[in-house]
Amino acid sequence: MTPRTAKNIITMREWRKKTFTDLYVFDIDNTIFKAVGSYEKDYDLQKFIKDNTFFKNLFLKKLPVFYAIAKFFGKPNTLVVIQTARARKWWLPFVLWLKGVKYDVLMQRPISNNQSSSSLKKTQLINLILWRNIKIGNVFFIDDNKENRDVIQSLSYAITFNAEELNKSAIEKEIAQQIKGRK
To answer: Quick one: which of 78, 107, 150, 180 could link to 83 by a disulfide (CB 3.0–4.6 Å)?
Structure first.
């Protein structure tokens, strides 16, 4: 877990007293950044692990959903979560900081965990909410993977969004505004 700022560190006791009206959960690959490697095309996990290096992550291309995070981060009673099925890397929080990603909680795959991506994400979200006894309103889950969205949608308090559609509509809107501006 990474605090918003060193000044704003929230202790576990304070979390239990706090009610979060909204929890925004963003995936990394093909949601806020263009994916490293080709895992989502060929599902070769070993190849993805090999491709997913510190150096390659420094040059990730930001997608439109990346800019939406700033709208939610820092709002009262809102928690921004970055959740990835990538294996835990010590350098990922540093890369996210360098890229300007603002978040309250970062969840990565534990090194020895072999669960499917969707099961892992559901388990991690439930654990975040229940084990830490966080009182929440809605969970807004933004992911490019349909299987992940379907599993999370089974939670009564979750609302899922297709990141590919959000990124595509944002790009189309930007193009339309540029064309309108030229006229």
So the answer is: 107
